[in-house]
Amino acid sequence: MMLGSGGKRIMGKWKGAWFLVRSELLWARWKFIMPVLFVGVMLLFMVPFFSDGLNGEAAVFSYWGIDLYALLLFPCLGMMGTQANFYWKSDMYTKKLEVWRTLPISLGQIALGKFLLYLTVSLPCMILFFTGFYFSVHFINPSFEFQAFLQFAIFWIFYTMVAGFLYLYVEIGYKGKTYFWYCMLLTFGAIGALVGITIWTKESVLVNSYNTVLNGGWWLPTGAIAISAVCIPLGLRSIEKRLRERDLSK
């Protein structure tokens, strides 16, 4: 331990972050079944449309549906199972922050702990999703190549890690109602953008990402890993800075 402001003893960086993760996991209990069930729903919806897209047989508007799941809802998997209540009705994370600030953990450890908690939920769900996705699509379309799929999955997993900060920063950095309206604007904005892109291109972002790596686009997963290596530390610092500036009384 080390001394923080006001003489408060601060846990080591990783110890304090994992303390927060463990406390949140114990609090969540059975709620972790929610993202697992959602993975099943995503597979039921995405597999047939993706398979049709590989063969060029999918309806145009089915593309924006699977793209919406990938771009907007993949990052949400890491948020499920640790939600306290509807953010419009409660401001649970403001209350939690008030408690966390009395504990021997720093703001940087709170930021790191939230991200580790996100990964603890998100990564197993993404692995479960892509395992089911590969075998299901391969059953329907035997030409679905494993090597290309692996690069495709790596790209989307690292995309999910970075995109998660779009939710984490606002969830912990602002009041519950602000986070609620932010999610509404993000959802409807994404729907509008994807509908426009689909009408214009008549293609799917998800299907195109697979076809890109299938045709030698090794730079796609490599670029996602490189961008993550830059964005994750920046995201953690941004959350810490926001927590330092935030007045919990307002």
From TrEMBL:
Keyword Metal-binding: no
Domain of life: Bacteria
Transmembrane stretches, start-end: 32-51, 63-88, 115-137, 149-170, 179-198, 218-236
Protein keywords: Membrane, Transmembrane, Transmembrane helix
Signal sequence segment: none
Name listed for the protein in its UniProt record: ABC transporter permease
Provenance organism: Paenibacillus agaridevorans
